[in-house]
Amino acid sequence: MSQRLDVTFILTLAPGESAEEKALGIALEQTVELGADVVSDDIRERMVGHIDALEALDGNRYRAVISYSPATIGNELTQCLNLLFGNISLKQGMRIVDIRWPQALLDSFGGPRHGIAGLREICGVAQGPLLCSALKPMGMSADQLAERAYQFALGGVHIIKDDHGVADQPDAPFDERLARCQAAIARANAETGGDSLYFPNVTAGFRELPRRLEAAKRAGCRGVLINPWVTGLDAMRWARDEFGLALMAHPALTGAYFGAEHGIAPELLLGDLFRVAGADASIYPNTGGRFGFTVETCEAINHHLRRELGGLLPAFPTPGGGMDVKRAPEWIRRYGPDTIVLIGGSLYAQGDLAAASRALKEALAIA
Amino acid sequence: MSQRLDVTFILTLAPGESAEEKALGIALEQTVELGADVVSDDIRERMVGHIDALEALDGNRYRAVISYSPATIGNELTQCLNLLFGNISLKQGMRIVDIRWPQALLDSFGGPRHGIAGLREICGVAQGPLLCSALKPMGMSADQLAERAYQFALGGVHIIKDDHGVADQPDAPFDERLARCQAAIARANAETGGDSLYFPNVTAGFRELPRRLEAAKRAGCRGVLINPWVTGLDAMRWARDEFGLALMAHPALTGAYFGAEHGIAPELLLGDLFRVAGADASIYPNTGGRFGFTVETCEAINHHLRRELGGLLPAFPTPGGGMDVKRAPEWIRRYGPDTIVLIGGSLYAQGDLAAASRALKEALAIA
Hints:
2 copies of one chain form a homodimer.
Chain A: E1 5-12, H1 19-29, H2 41-46, E2 50-56, E3 61-68, H3 77-85, E4 94-100, H4 103-109, H5 115-123, E5 130-135, H6 142-154, E6 159-162, H7 174-192, E7 197-199, H8 208-218, E8 223-226, H9 228-231, H10 233-243, E9 246-249, E10 263-264, H11 266-276, E11 281-285, H12 295-306, E12 316-320, H13 328-335, E13 340-342, H14 345-348, H15 353-363
Parallel strand pairs in A: 4-10, 5-6, 5-13, 6-7, 8-9, 9-11, 11-12
Antiparallel strand pairs in A: 1-3, 1-4, 2-3
Helix pairs in contact in A: 6-7, 6-15, 11-12
């Protein structure tokens, strides 16, 4: 494994642009932020990104590999994000399609605390896919959402999470919702002998996030939902270290990076970055639902969450966003059993949540 | 002022899409995340976004105004961000071009603590533009950066900030750099009788950010640089409340939202959002530099930072990113005196930083 951070870009040239200049522009912009003529030879060699490869593809596209010294990062996830795409986010035609991580950075960032095996243990499900659903819609009272949680738990849904937009609105304030939903699921578990879990959405501001995590832990929750691009990615990593709860990450706000010619490939952002920052499960919009990912993108995300990566634990792919009950078995066949199936609307549409959940589990052949 | 959050979108329709469905899709996706048929009349009326206007523009483009109830937000900046663009970031052809803020949200978010007048007072500059430069490149030692800070201060640069990629790398660790640069500027101020200020870059992870802010305050700094999209936007607001330092916000990572057909207009993200979250100054890439903003976009950002907005203090536009000393006077004539001129590379290229800074101040007719 390289000691450097190797970043592969697809460059799309505008008329008049040269590939060499565009690649060098990235290497300078993301490090010294000065023209090559203003930096010393020493700084240029040590700090400016190295252009390790540059090859023409079809049309006006080039593939460039730019590697960065660990000295440009200093072990901080925040500076790593900035180095990857901070200033060049403001440019055009630069898409990150591969990252090769130096072991030291992976060791420093740490990855999932529980991972696939750990989350299976928490859920008491040794094999096969996990089933997840979401408590919604916003506007319901805490009691109403808790009743839905109860029904999902009766139906044997493994992880019952808040919808990611259910935060601390007046209809169902966080503390009240936490208490009600956690109690409802405990009641259902007592009736069924099951182990359904409630993952409250702790996404909140800088002062409030720790308090919600603390409250979730005190209430007996084993995991939480978080929108890391809203809280700042490092907040998730911090939550991992500080609270030990399982972390299910939601992709809110990240879609802007998924441009065809400019941005960060979804499998790197929702795969690598979320995983190195501690996500035990990463939600993404499944193909064929309400969003536009291709099946190849979904499989790439799955791969990046599960692949060998410097000894980091693998994380659960969690396709959702309009997953249809009818097609869920097909997706599991395709994606494999180490997958969390996130289905909300398609269960709600059936009315009886417990029955719908049970039927889905049967269709998925989940014990 | 409306009680609701009014968001204007330009919708770009893909073949086969209808404007009505696309607008309704946003209104549902960003709130209840369920099909219209699965939510009760009560929830639909109270929580789903209202489509207040929908009109055809040229070609396949439509203008839609969608308003959201405060009940969908609950006063949290994190949920506000999610409501604005969380899930729909993952879609296509939805660009936010205007936001009308309800007074209650503005009161809750609070805006700049110092604003233009306060930052002028901190800098001791009652009128005319402020001059800012950046300490770089990364790879220099703390002493070397401090020497540059000293030269800039001798030249009368008002705000001398860390480059936004200078974080806590081994060549110039934060604490050492803070001490050295702050001392260097104090020494220059003692020699010149000036009031130059050092704004260290405090951008860091969740655990470390408070410590850096505390260290900056203890060292006597009056302000700091922060990359709010890296730390999480609410971290900046929290820093405002907790430390009282002036906040200069950097746009790292935000460029991905500035797509022509999908995203958030720069004047809303770097203008409104940064301002409501507490930025006293907002850095943006000036037109004609290394980035691609038009002069109209720059002027829109200036306007959004300075305009009347529910009693919030105005914030300083801070054009940078390849500003040329030669053209700086022209930009100030165009943008007006309530502007911070951020110039780095164009001063470094001249070698003698003190002399170059003095010459620039003369050209700008700054006392």
